[in-house]
Amino acid sequence: MAGMGNLAVACLFLSFNVFYISDKDDQDPGDVEGSMLGLQSYWDASYLEDLANFQEHGHTGEIWFGADVMDTVAVWTKSLCNIIEGKIPSGQDNIKSEVNENLFSNYPVLDVGTGNGLLLQALAKQGFTDLTGTDYSKGAVELARNLAARDGFSSINFLVDDVLETKLDRKFKIITDKGTLDAIGLHPDGRAKRMVYWESVSNLVEPGGIVVITSCNHTKDELLHEVEDFTKRKFGKENVDEGARDASEIFRYIDHVRTYPTIMFGGIEGSQVCTVAFQRV
Ligand SMILES: C[S@@+](CC[C@H](N)C(=O)[O-])C[C@H]1O[C@@H](n2cnc3c(N)ncnc32)[C@H](O)[C@@H]1O
């Protein structure tokens, strides 16, 4: 299992204020234009290559942000289930307590932009059983299905679906996103598309359910501001001023992962990755 310290920084797009970290060490950081990751054509080509590598060598493809982050997200997401059950009031920093598996195992979970689907396998190992992964790239879905079948997780459901124009007609208790909002933000119309993303996710998650976002492109505070901005746009600025805010809240910040290693960059200390949880009000 790769530790964060061992990870090669595959892409470092400073012009987009992005650290892209993966476990691939054969790419030159300057090789890829940052905005390419916002285009479906980039992902389609990338997963075709990953599929060929899987078929020839059994490779899984990228684990975005590394295996340690993936495992942390899976364990941490499970720990949040007490909040869904209303056992611990939101906002209280006490979510590491034991979770009764009978409570959460059948919670419907959706991983948007699932890629190779390995995060869902990690969630299955934590005891989740109702797992769906979507990606707009057919190659990703094929790769994820192949890997799940090979690894004994064929009950995970994988579908081709664009989260910005979703065809899904059910709601989920938990939505996870590892690197997908980052990729969407790198599209030339990234700002607008990120707002569409929040609208879509707000419709896909059940009231009281949670959204767990892992990003290397935005800090926790930037994600909080973005959610506030989304709320203001949705309800109109005047209704979301002080005092009226609670009534028009869509997502409530719950907590973020506090255990990621920090680095110094440009004299500022920060994490390369953040994972933030919001509860749908
Ligand atoms: C950085 S990769 C992360 C993949 C996976 N979540 C992981 O952690 O390994 C971003 C993923 O988002 C997918 N994606 C980007 N925009 C999407 C959209 N609008 N709808 C669905 N999937 C999307 C890409 O195809 C790609 O698989």
Bound molecules: S-adenosylmethionine
Helix content: 25-40%
CATH topology: Rossmann fold
From the structure provided, what is the oligomeric state, counting identical versus distinct chains?
single chain
CATH superfamily: Vaccinia Virus protein VP39
Can you tell me about this structure?
With 281 residues, this protein is α/β, with parallel strands linked by helices. It has one domain (4-280): Rossmann fold. It is built from nine helices and eleven strands. The chain has helices at residues 40-57, 66-79, 81-84, 101-104, 118-125, 138-150, 180-185, 190-204, 220-235, and strands at residues 11-13, 18-20, 108-112, 130-135, 157-160, 172-178, 205-215, 251-256, 262-265, 268-271, 274-280. A seven-stranded mixed beta sheet has the order 5-4-3-6-7-11-8, sandwiched between helices. Strands 1-2 form a two-stranded antiparallel sheet. The chain has a two-stranded antiparallel sheet with strand order 9-10. Strand 3 (108-112), helix 5 (118-125) and strand 4 (130-135) form a beta-alpha-beta unit. The longest helix has 18 residues, at 40-57. It starts with 10 loop residues before the first strand and ends with a strand. It binds S-adenosylmethionine. One of its GO terms (biological process) is methylation. Residues 1-22 form the signal peptide. Its main location: cytoplasm. GO terms for molecular function: protein-lysine N-methyltransferase activity.
